[in-house]
């Protein structure tokens, strides 16, 4: 008998009337001494398949271990259902229990657990309907990302997770070392001597693959990265993780306009793909968490993103008359409340802000002629705020070197990066998309810890 998933059983009409086999985990069991009904799910879909057991064929002892959370195999005939809520069901002829789940100790025995509680049992929460839907959407979006770039001539580049450079200049990085930190070798200044470490220098987990991505773009033309990144910020907000995934395309011969065009097209493609392939899961999450989810997703893919400068954005915010928690002045790093005002209240559609003050942006961004701003771009979304950050990169060797020196970035860490400007420099651009923020937007969830299988946050690394 061909192995079939529950999704296939529910969506293959020609299987009606045939003998089938279903395997999965029991969601519920109910009935009486004459007939029992089991809702079975195998993770392939948010929908369960109903199993109907005629109790003249099964004993009470046989069904005693079949409780919520137990895993079973059932053989029987797939038939059209006479009941409401499903169009087909399995009339069971044979049942085998693979694994039991003690109803007195199984944490998911009852429904209605809070998201906060489920974060404490992250090893089991994927079995819930909500997190099953989130993880299937996450998987579909990951596939869409690769599909988008591969179909457009980009090459997938694997950049290192261990690095000696801080691409963002944030300094909040996880150290990687093999030294005995209880008794490390020390240099003449009494500090740990990293020349004795595995790599012969101080190294950390990467916060971004961008700098190495630029190396790939100046050889292959167009590349993208898609991998984990790490930030050791002691932040417990609903928008931050210590371990998260980033998509970072880098394109030779792209200016800032090309970069914005790509970012807008890319986001719309991913959202459209999710709507087309995950409609059942999106509908479930809409009903459970966010009543306006589908409408908001369709609105984004049908709207042209507004494009305006940071300076224009600040002027709009100052003229709004709205009292913000963080006062608005030119030169500040805009907060989520400012970004969401522009998107949700003023323009009522996604916004791309450009030309930020250079003092609040990274050293590698191309400087404008005014000497005060850089060709940066941030894509702002409803409910999220910033979802993409990018820029045209500084291609001029002298300007880039001057910025590195101005910010006192150690030259010993940057010589290889400067070589891309010494040998065949070209205009080039790129951006970074925090994958979890995209999943957050598409699923309608409100906490970023609920869109990654096993969240890593301060004090939390159990699973």
Characterization of this structure:
- By secondary structure, this protein is α+β, with helices and mostly antiparallel strands.
- It has helices at 6-11, 60-63, 115-120, 129-151, 210-220, 256-277, 279-288, 293-302, 310-319, 336-347, 397-406, 415-422, 435-443, and strands spanning 19-31, 35-41, 49-54, 71-80, 88-99, 155-156, 162-163, 175-176, 203-205, 222-230, 243-252, 306-309, 351-357, 373-381, 385-392, 428-434.
- The protein has an 8-stranded mixed β-sheet with strand order 6-10-11-16-15-14-13-12. The chain has a 5-stranded mixed β-barrel with strand order 1-2-3-5-4. Strands 7-9-8 form a 3-stranded antiparallel β-sheet, with no helix packed on it.
- A hairpin with a 3-residue loop joins strand 1 (19-31) and strand 2 (35-41).
Any descriptors?
463 residues, elongated, eight-stranded mixed sheet, alpha+beta, 16 strands, five-stranded mixed beta barrel
Write the layout of secondary structure elements.
Blueprint: H1 6-11, E1 19-31, E2 35-41, E3 49-54, H2 60-63, E4 71-80, E5 88-99, H3 115-120, H4 129-151, E6 155-156, E7 162-163, E8 175-176, E9 203-205, H5 210-220, E10 222-230, E11 243-252, H6 256-277, H7 279-288, H8 293-302, E12 306-309, H9 310-319, H10 336-347, E13 351-357, E14 373-381, E15 385-392, H11 397-406, H12 415-422, E16 428-434, H13 435-443
Parallel strand pairs: 3-5, 6-10, 12-13
Antiparallel strand pairs: 1-2, 1-4, 2-3, 4-5, 7-9, 8-9, 10-11, 11-16, 13-14, 14-15, 15-16
Helix pairs in contact: 4-6, 4-7, 4-13, 6-8
């Amino acid at each position: 008998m061909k192995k079939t998933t529950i999704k296939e059983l529910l969506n293959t009409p020609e299987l009606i009337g045939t003998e089938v086999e279903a395997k999965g985990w029991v969601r519920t069991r109910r009935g009486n001494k004459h007939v029992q009904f089991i809702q079975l799910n195998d993770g392939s879909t948010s929908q369960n398949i109903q199993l109907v057991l005629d109790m003249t064929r099964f004993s009470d002892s046989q069904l005693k271990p079949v409780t919520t959370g137990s895993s079973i195999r059932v053989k029987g005939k797939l038939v059209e259902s006479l009941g409401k809520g499903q169009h087909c069901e399995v009339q069971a002829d044979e049942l085998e229990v693979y694994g039991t789940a003690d109803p007195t100790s199984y944490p998911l025995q009852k429904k209605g657990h809070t998201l906060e509680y489920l974060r404490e049992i992250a090893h089991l929460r994927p079995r819930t309907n909500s997190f099953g839907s989130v993880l299937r959407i996450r998987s579909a979006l990951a596939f869409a990302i690769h599909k988008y770039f591969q179909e457009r001539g980009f090459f997938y580049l694997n950049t290192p997770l261990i690095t000696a450079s801080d691409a963002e200049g944030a300094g909040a990085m996880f150290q990687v070392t093999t030294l005995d930190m209880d008794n490390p070798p020390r240099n003449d200044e009494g500090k740990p001597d990293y020349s004795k470490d595995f790599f012969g220098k101080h190294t950390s987990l990467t916060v971004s693959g961008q700098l190495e991505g630029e190396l790939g773009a100046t050889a292959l033309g167009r590349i993208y990265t898609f991998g984990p990144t790490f930030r050791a910020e002691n932040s417990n907000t609903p928008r931050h993780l210590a371990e998260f995934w980033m998509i970072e395309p880098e394109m030779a011969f792209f200016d800032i306009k090309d970069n914005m065009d790509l970012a807008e097209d890319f986001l719309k493609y991913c959202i459209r793909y999710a709507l087309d392939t995950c409609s059942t899961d999106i509908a479930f999450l809409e009903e459970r968490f966010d009543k306006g989810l589908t409408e908001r997703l369709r609105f984004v893919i049908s709207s042209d993103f507004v494009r305006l400068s940071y300076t224009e954005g600040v002027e709009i915010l100052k003229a709004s008359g709205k009292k913000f928690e963080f006062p608005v002045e030119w030169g500040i790093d805009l907060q989520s409340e400012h970004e969401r005002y522009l998107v949700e209240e003023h323009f009522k559609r996604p916004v791309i802000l450009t030309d930020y003050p250079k003092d609040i942006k990274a050293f590698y961004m191309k400087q404008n002629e005014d000497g005060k701003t850089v060709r940066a771009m941030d894509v702002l979304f409803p409910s999220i705020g910033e979802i993409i950050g990018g820029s045209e990169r500084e291609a001029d060797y002298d300007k880039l070197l001057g910025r590195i020196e101005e910010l006192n970035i150690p030259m010993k860490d940057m010589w290889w990066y400067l070589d891309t400007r010494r040998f065949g420099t070209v205009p080039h651009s790129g951006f970074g998309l925090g994958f979890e923020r995209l999943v957050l937007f598409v699923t309608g969830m409100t906490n970023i810890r609920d869109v990654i299988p096993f969240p890593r946050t301060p004090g939390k690394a159990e699973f």
